[in-house]
Amino acid sequence: MFRSLHIKLVMILLLLVTSLMAVVGAFLMTSVTSFYIDDFYAQMSETFGESNAAFVHTLRSEAAQEDGMQRIQAMIETYSGTLGIDGRNRNYYILDARTGAFLAGSDEGGETLEQTENILTARNGSVGDKSDIAANYMDVAIPISGGDNSFIIYIRDNRSTVSSLNSELLLIILQALLVGLLVSVTLSFLLAKTIIDPIEKLTEGTERIAKGDFNETLNVESTDEIGILTTTFNDMASVLHKTLEAVENERNKLDTLFLHMTDGVVAYDGNGALIHCNPAAAALLGRKSEDCRYSELFETMCPFAHVVSLQRSDFVESELAVGDRSVEVCLAPFSDEQRGGVLVVLHDVTEHRKTEERRKEFVANVSHELRTPLTNVRSYAETIREAGDELSRETENDFLDVVISETDRMTNIVRDLLTLSRLDSGRSEMNMARFPFGAAIDAVLRSIELEARRHHHELTRSYPDSLPIIVGDRGRLEQVMLNVLGNAVKYTPDGGHIHVTAGESSTGDKVWMEVADDGIGIPEADRSRIFERFYRVDKARSRESGGTGLGLSIATEIVQRHNGTLSLVDREGPGTTVRLELPIIQPLGGEAAHE
Ligand code: ADP
Questions:
Q1: Average pLDDT over residues 116-137
Q2: What is the pTM (predicted TM-score) of this model?
Q3: 536 lines ligand 1 (CB under 6 A)
């Protein structure tokens, strides 16, 4: 209950009452003293002033007598009632005007009378009636001369009446002060009820809101300043609530974003302590979130102090190798130097780097593949021109045959590259239609039969007649089969065996075809790479047989566009077995999903 405001209120009221009483008391006491002094001098003036000139005249004539002093004393005694002389507080004295010596008076102790300023004035012949509010007495000295005699009538009041009156007054003021103080304390309780109670309620409300409880608004109980303050406070609380909700919402949004984004985000405070690390960052860095310390991961890349001191729009970019993955790292400061920190954004660029690598390799391969036939064409052409008639017709024709075959090779490479480019860019549409899988294999076998025979290969087949009808681009799939069969013919020494099998998967949703040969086979180290562009196990042999090294890459692209697979079968023995697997059902009329 006795809060500081309450104590202040009591103190203010007490001070107010005390100072009021002090002012009133001082004023009253000064007024009473002044009144008393004024009254004294008015009485004296009435008796000895010009308005009573006859009395003064009589005094002078009495003074001229031989027993002048006694006569004057008798007259003063007669007037003692008018002059207020009581022989105690106010006395009269008759003094010798020349020496100032005491002659007679109402006070026995007149002998010891000091020579006041007014007495000295009277001894000089003038009336001494100067008052001094600070003195503890009031006096008046009137010179009376008659004949040879000169006297001074000196009236002196010791002010004890006014002193006792003032004491009385002081007592009353002190009693009033006491009552005033009691009233103040009582009043302070009443005031506390009307002023402090609403403030206490307001304080409770602010404490509630400080704890995050925005459910209740404060009751506005009055229209005074406290009422206005309460209304303003309610408005402020509602704005604060909405702002906090918006901030919370933003935070949740950011949390969800950080949680699900594929890029990693790690945040550190101004001292380098970890604030946040999303799951993607932990996965990219290959550590637990709480172990992603700046000092261990990025300090060597760029010192923390340097990143913090950067401008807000600046950042440091670098790359980190985590296992076999490449992670692009972007370090940027946030907020200011004191309260901010560092934000690290991680982006997995492994695929990007690989693609870039593959692209470079591809460009190098293309230039290499084209340079060889071009050099050949140029050198043969030059030889023919330089030799002129020296060359026999037969040799010249041989050279021209080489030029033609090298040109064909370049045409094949360019054709294959164009096919791949179309497949890559998705410009090459698949003409999806239903067709019998078995019939397609039959057609391909028919077209390769002659070539196989030329190489004295034994081409055998074993697949049921009832192979299902599938959906796909028949022309392109036959191209794939022809490529696989062509490879078997090419990479099997003459007189080999090529066996084609096909069937339907046990799940009933796929068909497959396998081409097995007993040729040169593919070494273990090259098996995973033969589907790459321009990859050839034996370049010379491939070139000799007119291969570009792009056949299986194109075949793989086409098969993938049909959601199928083209793979090597792991098996014992010499030779190679290639397996083509295709789903039976495809979305008709549209293209199958592709990368
Ligand atoms: P190419 O035009 O060189 O035949 P491909 O893409 O069709 O290109 O084949 C890539 C490489 O795979 C070939 O150069 C060859 O080395 C190897 N290859 C493919 N099929 C066979 C097979 N049946 N037997 C042995 N090697 C093969």
A1: 88
A2: 0.53
A3: yes
